[in-house]
Design goal:
Keywords: Hydrolase, Protease. By secondary structure, this protein is an alpha+beta fold. The chain is about 15% helix and about 35% strand. The strands form four sheets. The chain has a four-stranded antiparallel beta sheet, with no helix packed on it. It has a four-stranded antiparallel beta sheet with strand order 4-5-2-13, with no helix packed on it.
């Protein structure tokens, strides 16, 4: 399969009144489809880094932000298939009685996803839709059409109920609302986030940022669904997953440093074709 090369990275500049413990979750995750290379960190002033894997299988990086101004940067390259996200329209829903043990947790309510609050709406909207991939895609399309993407419309504590009530949100809220509707129907769904470059799509005029989407368990595996865009994309590189955004925060600080600046890089590296060498 042909591949594309994606440059990934992020930059955080904080100012702290005193040394502040922090956990960063920005490392690109490799997979059967994605090969990550040339990963590197830069921290100014220089402080020790400690990498570990959390309960949900995410790579996390611990450090202590020093008092004053500090800069944390992460960069890597990802080789991805020249193909859109995988799909299988015949993938079935699995009854709760036979779901894998480690998948059951993704049918339950969590901090930002409350199927118990929105369950009656989910059944009203989707009870008569054919089960399996068709029903999950119907939920994805409904969320995409129901919410209006509005930068700055929500806050870090906003829930799926807030998004449902207001009708506005950012990609995080689109993901939370879709997760909630799936779980209300006993379909396991989890929150995923990472890097999503504009590959073979019209460039997005807003500044690049991290992106959140949904993974749904159908058949015997997780599948990516993106209610913000409602289409299958090229170049998606995951960072982490969890029950909702609380389990997959890009930065967690144990204090209140001021985030002065954050930038995200996710763009294709245009490679010059190798010139042919004439044979004699």
């Amino acid at each position: 399969m042909d591949t594309r090369l994606i440059e990934l990275g992020c930059y955080f500049r904080h100012q702290a009144a005193w040394p502040t413990a922090a956990v960063f979750q920005v490392t690109a995750a490799g997979s059967d489809r994605v090969r990550v290379s040339d990963a590197r960190w830069s921290v100014e002033p220089n402080v020790p880094l400690h990498h570990y894997t959390d309960t949900f299988g995410n790579t996390c990086t611990r450090l202590e932000l020093p008092s004053g101004v500090s800069v944390v940067e992460y960069h890597s390259l990802a080789t991805v298939p020249d193909a859109i996200d995988e799909a299988e329209e015949s993938a079935p829903e699995i009854p709760a009685a036979t779901l894998p043990d480690d998948v059951l947790v993704y049918t339950l309510a969590s901090r930002f996803c409350q199927p118990d609050e929105l369950g009656r709406h989910a059944w009203r909207l989707f009870a008569d839709v054919p089960t399996g991939w068709s029903r999950v895609q119907a939920i994805c399309t409904w969320v995409h059409e129901y919410l209006v993407y509005t930068t700055g419309s929500t806050v870090p504590t906003s829930t799926s109920v807030d998004a449902f009530s207001s009708g506005v949100g950012v990609c995080r809220d689109f993901a939370h609302l879709m997760i909630t509707m799936c779980r209300a129907l006993n379909i396991p769904a989890r929150y995923a986030f990472g890097y999503l470059p504009d590959v073979d799509v019209a460039p997005n005029p807003t500044p690049m940022d991290f992106h959140a989407w949904v993974q749904v368990w159908l058949g015997d595996r997780w599948w990516d669904f993106d209610p913000r865009h409602n289409n299958r994309r090229k170049g998606r590189v995951q960072i982490g997953q969890g029950r909702d955004a609380a389990d997959a925060a890009m930065v967690t600080t144990y204090g209140a440093p001021w985030l002065q600046l954050m930038t995200v890089t996710a763009r294709e590296v245009v490679q010059e074709p190798t010139p042919s060498v004439p044979t004699v």
